[in-house]
């Protein structure tokens, strides 16, 4: 490949990043994480629910829910409008979206005490996990360079494999919840 052709290819690859840095283009990011069909990376994290904080010996381990379908929802921060909308939708449509045998977990960088207050305010019936240093978010392609998680969702099958993932979950879009519902249904049947 000639130097001119290489320069043109390089320019086209770098242009979105330059435009974004100048505030003139679409936000472009590269996300990775376990692909559909691969094993979900195991982890252990502190957690909280609306009435309990589980730390140290009570930390949540993904391995404990092998044999169940797990929905792992990474989100940026507690007490924000969009995160409140997303997790309230999970609460309000829990039976339709997930059903009784599915484990739902929210993951952000907030502390367990903040999670407990947030879960109590929203009346959440599922656990919120605290990934302070974004170690787990990095494994799942959900780590943002700004120190918060990107809004991503994984559906993990009973066998511990990723059955579905959405690396840009749109909490304001009803179609996103419908796609999630279909993915959970497929994972519970399979």
Description:
The protein has 2 domains: 30 residues, no CATH class; 158 residues, 3-Layer(aba) Sandwich (Glutaredoxin), CATH 3.40.30. The chain is 35% helix and 18% strand. It has 6 helices and 9 strands. Helix 4 links the parallel strand 6 and strand 7. The chain is globular and about 35 Å long. About 14% of the residues have low confidence.
Please summarize what this structure is.
With 190 residues, the protein is an alpha+beta fold.
Instruction: Work out the helicity level.
Output: 25-40%
Q: Strand content of the residues, in percent?
A: 15-25%
Measured between the Cα atoms of the first and last residue, the distance is 47 Å
Number of strands: 9
- The CATH class of the largest domain is identified as Alpha Beta
N to C succession of SSEs: HEEEEEHHEHEHEEH
What's the mean pLDDT score?
86
**Spans of at least 5 consecutive residues with low confidence:** 4-30
The main sheet orders its strands as 3-2-7-6-5-8-9
What is the name of the CATH architecture of the largest domain?
Answer: 3-Layer(aba) Sandwich
Topology:
Layout: H1 3-21, E1 44-45, E2 47-48, E3 53-54, E4 60-61, E5 69-74, H2 81-92, H3 94-97, E6 102-108, H4 112-122, E7 127-130, H5 135-139, E8 152-156, E9 162-166, H6 174-189
Parallel strand pairs: 5-6, 6-7
Antiparallel strand pairs: 1-4, 2-3, 2-7, 5-8, 8-9
Brief descriptors of the model:
9 strands; two-stranded antiparallel ribbon; 190 residues; Glutaredoxin; alpha+beta; 2 domains
